[in-house]
Every structure is written in C-alpha cells, then in structure tokens.
Design a protein that fits this description.
The protein contains 26 helices and 24 strands. The chain is an alpha/beta fold. Helix 2 runs antiparallel to helix 7 and helix 18 packs parallel to helix 20. It is elongated, with a radius of gyration of 53 Å. This is EAL domain-containing protein. Keywords: Membrane, Transmembrane, Transmembrane helix.
C-alpha cells in the first residue's frame, strides 16, 4: 500500500496550523486596531465640532443680547426725541387721530428697523391706543401682565398672529414715570433668523427653541419663519436629547439649540469605517500573501512530518499500527465506553505458531515476506472500521469495535482458517503457517488496555498449550482463564471502590505488656465493600492491587482516610495509629509531599502517626525506605518493620533502617509455647532489638499463655485476637469528604 493512500487529507502539520492561527489572529488584531483608529478619528471630529459649537453658541448669544440691548436703547432715545408727541398721545387717549398715530409710527420705523407697530400700555395692562392697534393677542397679553408684575420684561418670546410672527419689547414710558405706563413696540423677527444663518457653520444646525415648552421650535437654519408659520414645529424628547448644545438666552423664553447634521454624522462614520476597512484589507492581503509563501515553503516539510509520524505510529515492515498506537486506540475506545453495557467490540490476538522455524529454515527475508503478505491478507478480510497492529515479530492484534460479541468466536475462526489456507509456496515450497488466536469481548467493564492484553495473552497461552492452531475465547470455563478472570473482577471491584469510597477502615489495638499507662496504639486495617455489599478482607484484593498497579492508590486512600478519621474523633487526642505501606508506594517520589499535605489538611499531629513497612519491601527498596523514614521521622512520625524474621537477610540490613519498632512475624508467635526453636528465635530478635534501642511487637497473639510468655521475656507490645479483634473504625461520608 502506498504511503500517500495512508495519510489522511485532514492531517495538518503543526507548523502550518500555527501559521494559519497567526494569520487569523493578526487579521483580527489589525481589524480591531483600524476600527479603534476609526472610532478615535470619529471622536476627534466630534470633539472638534463641539468646540466649534461652543464658539458659535457664545457668538450667537452675544449678538442676540447686543441686538436686544441696542433696540431698547434706540427706543429710549426715540422717546427722548419725541417726548412731546408721546405725551400728547397719552393725553388724547382714544381721542387721538389716526394721522397723529401714523405720523409718530412712521418716525419710529425710520429710526428703528423692523418695527411693525407700537402701543402704549397703562398700569392695568390695557392699550391706550387700542382704536389703532387693536386688542392684544393672548400671548402678548401674557407677556404684558408678566412685565407689569415684574416691573421689567424678563420673558421675551415670539408671538404668532394671522399676519405672521413678531416679538415685543416693553419699555417704561419715559414721558410720565408716575403713571406706570409702558411703550409697547412689536418687531419683525427676521433679524433673529438672519443672526442664526450668519453664524451657521458647515454641518451644523441651529434652532431657536422655547425653554418653557419642551421641543417647540420657533425657527432655525433648517426651519424658516415662513415654514414654522404654517404650523407649530415640535421635536420629540429623544430628538431634543440629540442636541449637543442647549443654551438659554437671558431675558427671554428662548434657548439656542445646536446639533450636527445627521448626514454629517453618517458620512463621517461611513468614511472612517471604509478607510479603516480598506487599510485592514490591504494589510491583511499582504499578511495572507506572506502566509501563502510560508505555506508553500512548509508543504514539503509537512509531507516529511507526516511520513515521520507514520513511521512513528506504524510498523515499518507491514504498514500496520505499532503497539503504542494500537494501545492508545484501544484505551480511547475503552474510556469512551467505560461503564456502559456493550454488545459490540472484540479484540483478537493472533500469534503465528512456531514462526521462528520459518526464519531459521527459510531466512529472515522469507519471514518478513510472509508477515507482509499476511498483514495484507488480514486487512482485506477485516471490516473498514477495524484496527490492526503488529505487536511483535510474530504477533498481530485486531480491534473490531462493531463486531457483535456472539460473533467473536466465529470471526476469529475465519481469521485462523485464512492464515492456515493462505498460499505461501511462491515464497518457499511447502511453506505454510498456522496461528493461535485469542479473542476478548469488550463489555465496558475493562480497566484499561493492559487488562485486555493480559487476558489475551492468557487465552493465547492456553490455545498453544492445547496444541496451537486453534481459537480460544477468553470467557470460557477453563480453570486458568477463570482464575485470571477472577483477578480482573477483583481489580475492577477495587477500582470502583476507590472511585466510590467503598473502602472501610478497621483498627486493631496493640496491648502494652510492660507499661499499661501508655496511650492506646492501633494498627490501621482496610476492608473493601463489593457491589453486592459483601466485605472483602485484604488477602482478597491486596495481591491483585499489587499485581496490577493499584496498590499506591489504596495506600493513598488509607493515609487520607486515617487522617480524616483522627480529625473527626475530637474526643481522642492521644491514640497512636500505624499505617501499612507497600514497597511501590515507598518508592513513589510524591509520597512525602502527599503525607505533608494530608497532615496540613486534617491538622493531625505527626507524633500520632506511624508507618509499617514489610521486611521484604524495605530490603528491596532500601534507599527509598531510608529516605522516607528519615524525612518522616524528622517531623515526628514513627516507623515499624513489619513481618520481621520472615527473611534471614533482615539482620544484615537492620542496622541501616532507622525504624523504631520491630514487628515479629506471627509465624513465630502462634505456637511459641510449644516450639522451643521459635522461643529462641523470638528471644534473639527481642534482645537484638533492645540492643539497638528499638521496641518489639509480637503479632498473632491468640492465647493467654503466649501473651504471658512474651511478657516474661520483655516484649513491649502484643497484637492479636486474644487481646482485640479488628473493629470497624471509619468510612467516608458526605460530611467527611466535604471537610
């Protein structure tokens, strides 16, 4: 099979994938930067326009105030020049002739611009010349009354009439101050409109807006007097809030309102964003061209990486997966379906019978050709979703994730027959092969790929022991496989118990034989509750835990559970507890930091903790044992050498182990009263311990006579059913695990 057909199209090299991310992230960063620049530019435009509006506002307000002040001054000057004529009008009242009124009005219009008419208002607000001026408009009357009340005109505003707009100026009549009369002059407001228009800057809209009526527009650069005469112009509250400036005009009911033209805002936003996007597009284009150049440069490198990856994950001879890759695929499949009730999924282990004879008889080249042809034939027969691997020189493994369990034996038999019937005569005359095939069904209860391979190896060994060239299904009534299956069940139960906190702590008291006043001492023991609720003693699961690599997890659980139990028992602050450790845990570099962490977590005094290590493990892991003992002893923990005497090499290593106690193996204690050799041996070990400053503990003390004898020779502690049977002590619960 060609290498190019094996490489998948979606297999990307790491360098190319990183380059794509760099291009993408660079493009995003550039887009963010240019949009930020565009928004900053828009903000600068807006700030500049605001500064212009502030200047325009000040200019318009100053010109309005100057205009009104000049008008009032001009009216007062007119009164001084025509005082006699005005006095005559007041005296004549409604007897005044029209010619006299019109003559004075003509003079006023010649001296003051934009005058429409004038009138004289008495102290009651009535017009003295109403026969010529008519009755005042209602809003004019409102303004007159307000002026008479205040004594001066403070609320100037624009009045509408059928003839148009006007505004009124009320000045005290200077010819007769005692009478409290006012000169009423109506003006055409065109000059007010011209002032707004003259000060309007590009993209700005200026309006004269009533301050006492929300949103009412008198006129503006966008709304002329003629347009506003047709109907009152009102803006909504939302539109009013869009104005950048609203400044009241003193002495009037007006406020000057300025805003940017909506089309200006839209144009500025559009131009700024378009410029930003153009800059982004050009820059991104250059980055993309650079990426394409890099992509072409990396293409060959990617092919080389794929070839290297293929060689790393596949067998060079057959092109099948290598063992590590196959184990990874199998582990992933098991993890995906862990705990599920599975009806599909089978793994086969194919071991070529006596393949070494082929190499020896026909040469390694012929053997390699056989393996290559065989792998090709197997791949043709296997379904598309199957995974095949060459595990070793003469072993193949096949994972069939969609094969039903009931078809496992039949499919494996077909594979065996295909190997047996395959024609190898073109490689060497009379060359034929056979295979022993082990089959294992994946039911979702496996612990991992290691368990599967162990089971398959057991099945293949059994097939070969029966003569080879046969299929052996792992789940059968064979004694060897049943024993292995039982071990796997125990391992499965233990793994589940660790996950579900279905382990329990028991404790057994050690009796002090020489000093009964000492604090209570206990050895911590562990039990397992299986899924049926039955209690399993350590001899049922500890050997399997040690064999299949779970013993460290058990030890860690026991350590933490012991500390949790001590912390929970607040009524006992002195009892001492010894914890058994395996040699595997003893060699774990992280065990010291773990013990420190648990002591800190549960606030347990180290002086209340002891560890027991067996003689065999202490000797085989001497350096690790010494390092662990020394560091734990430094903080106050105690150590015991368990099962002492079970190995004769103990004496040569005892001096190197800085333990505090020697626990004499129970094999020497059970019949100590009837066996003189055991007595001599125990007495010797006890004297040796005393000479080295260590205390002794006798295990399996089951009779009063044994305890009496041990006490007579000075043994420090006795442990066994005679004094105390193991009792339930602790199990995890919700309140403890949450502590």
């Amino acid at each position: 099979m060609k290498l190019a057909n094996v490489i998948k199209d979606n297999d990307r090299s790491r360098a190319l994938a990183e380059s794509k991310w760099i291009v993408f992230l660079t493009s995003i960063m550039l887009l963010i930067l240019v949009i930020w620049g565009a928004l900053s530019s828009i903000q600068l435009h807006y700030n500049y326009q605001k500064s212009l509006m502030d200047s325009v506002t000040k200019s318009v307000l100053a010109e309005y105030q100057e205009h009104l002040t000049q008008l009032r001054l001009t009216i007062d000057q007119f009164q001084f020049r025509h005082a006699s004529a005005l006095a005559q009008l007041v005296l004549s009242g409604n007897q005044t002739s029209k010619d006299e009124y019109m003559e004075l009005l003509t003079q006023l219009r010649e001296e003051v611009d934009d005058v429409r008419l004038f009138a004289i208002v008495d102290s009651s607000g009535k017009g003295v010349l109403s026969q010529f001026t008519g009755e005042f408009l209602p809003d004019c009357r409102e303004e007159i009354d307000d002026t008479l009340l205040r004594g001066s005109q403070e609320n100037l505003f624009l009045h509408r009439s059928p003839n148009g707009f006007h505004y009124d100026l009320l000045q005290p009549l200077l010819v007769d101050k005692q009478a409290g009369l006012f000169l009423f002059v109506a003006f055409d407001p065109a000059v007010l409109e011209r002032i707004l228009t003259q000060h309007q800057l590009p993209y700005q809209q200026l309006f004269l807006m009533r301050s006492d009526q929300s949103g009412k527009i008198e006129f503006g650069t966008e709304i002329s007097l003629e347009k506003s005469h047709d109907q009152s112009i009102y803006m909504s509250g939302e539109e009013v809030h869009q104005f950048d400036f609203l400044k009241p005009i003193p002495g009037t009911r007006w406020q000057l309102a300025i805003r940017l033209a909506p089309e200006y805002n839209a144009r500025v936003y559009l131009e700024s964003i378009l410029q930003a996007l153009l800059l982004w597009g050009v820059t991104t284009g250059f980055v993309y061209l650079f990426y394409q150049a890099q992509r072409r440069r990396l293409y060959k490198q990617r092919i080389m990486e794929k070839e290297l990856s293929f060689k790393t994950s596949h067998d060079e001879l057959t092109g099948t997966m290598n063992r590590a890759t196959f184990e990874g695929q199998l582990a992933a499949f098991i993890a995906q379906h862990s705990g599920q009730l599975m009806m599909e999924g089978v793994v086969l282990l194919i071991d070529i019978d006596q393949f070494q004879l082929v190499n020896n008889s026909f040469g390694y080249s012929a053997g390699d050709s056989c393996l290559n042809l065989l792998s090709f034939a197997l791949r043709r027969q296997l379904p598309a979703q199957a995974k095949i691997s060459r595990l070793s020189s003469d072993e193949f493994a096949v994972m069939l994730p969609e094969l039903h369990h009931e078809l496992a034996h039949g499919f494996a038999e077909k594979v065996r027959q295909q190997i047996e019937q395959f024609d190898f005569t073109h490689i060497a005359p009379d060359l034929s092969l056979s295979a022993s095939v082990g089959a294992f069904v994946l039911d979702g209860q496996q612990l991992g790929s290691e368990e599967v391979f162990n089971a398959l190896a057991q099945a293949v060994r059994l097939a070969k022991s029966k003569g080879g060239n046969r299929v052996q299904l792992y789940h059968s009534d064979d004694v060897a496989l049943s024993q292995h299956a039982q071990e796997m069940n125990v391992v499965r139960e233990l793994r589940a118990a660790l996950n579900d906190n279905r382990l329990q702590l028991y404790r057994q008291r050690l009796r002090a034989l020489s000093d009964a006043s000492q604090a209570s001492r206990y050895e911590v023991l562990v039990r397992l509750i299986d899924h049926h609720g039955s209690l399993l003693t350590p001899d049922k699961f500890i050997p399997a835990a040690e064999k299949y690599g779970l013993i460290s997890q058990v030890d860690h659980w026991v350590i933490e559970a012991t500390f949790a139990a001590i912390a929970k028992d607040i009524g006992d602050s002195s009892s001492h507890y010894s914890i058994n450790l395996s040699g595997v845990t003893l060699g774990d570099k992280g065990i010291i930091s773990f013990v420190h962490a648990m002591l800190e977590k549960y606030q347990v005094a180290p002086q209340r903790i002891g560890f027991e290590i067996t003689e065999t493990y202490a000797i085989t892991h001497l350096s690790a044992a010494i390092a662990f003992i020394e560091q734990m002893t430094a903080i106050g923990c105690e150590f015991s050498l368990d099962d002492f005497g079970s190995g004769l090499s103990s004496f040569s290593y005892l001096q190197q182990l800085p333990v505090h106690n020697l626990k004499i193996d129970g094999v020497f204690i059970r019949n100590i009263c009837d066996n003189r050799l055991n007595q001599v041996f125990v007495e010797t070990m006890h004297r040796l311990a005393k000479e080295m400053g260590k205390k002794t503990v006798a295990e399996f003390v089951e009779t009063e006579s044994a305890q009496h004898y041990l006490s007579s020779i000075g043994v420090d502690y006795a442990q066994g059913y005679h004094h105390h049977k193991p009792e339930f002590w602790f199990e995890y619960s919700a309140d403890v695990t949450g502590s």
